[in-house]
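Memo to structure team: turn this sequence into structure tokens by end of day. - J.P.
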Amino acid sequence: MRIAFGVEYDGQPFYGFQTQKQEPTVQSCLEKAVSKVANHPVRVICAGRTDTGVSATQQIIHFETTAVRTPRQWVLGVNTAIHEGVSVLWAKQVDDTFHARFSATSRSYQYRILCRKVRPAINRHQLTWVLPPLDHKKMHEAAQYLLGEHDFNAFRSSKCQANNPVRTMHEARVYQVGDHIICEFRANAFLHHMIRNIVGTLLKVGKAERPVQWVEEVLLGKDRTKAGMTAPPNGLMFTGVTYPHSYRVPPNETD
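Reply from structure team:
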């Protein structure tokens, strides 16, 4: 049977989601804990891989198992066995056609910036600190050039393995809450470092180093060297995934 989990994690102690030579990773921790509860080896597949230091509030994974467990048993069992920086929020048996990555219709990220004169002590691993002034209204205006279907080659890492740089940006907004400037993005999919490169570019606009229209020039130029710096990973959060309603993922309270 196929089981889906909703997972949250603090990215600070991990070398990203995907299993690699450096440890720990979120995937390896999940696989060890789920395998223990299932009593057989398990491989998990996620909706979107995150880099070193990047956190998630609603990552979706799925795996195959022959073990019969209730959703509550999966949640309690895995959370007892796993690294303290990872928590399973819910578990649900899903149709065999469901795929955490390929069934997704959109993914959402949030980038949080603390804009004040004093460095942060609280939640510093999930913030990027920028000295004021920073014009969030101009950053939001500039972000609107990214909406729709575009070639996002200007905003992807040189290590990006995607064959096609075209993505569709459904939402892009920047707003302020107290000392925090929040950047939110939703797209059908994202390229490697795409959000961090976009934020690094928007920061140049917010700091009045570049005009609002410059972001459109960078996008159309398709040249990574013309964009802003890659923003630090610790401000980035994977915040959700959407799927066709028929899968009922994530589940609601009646499921």
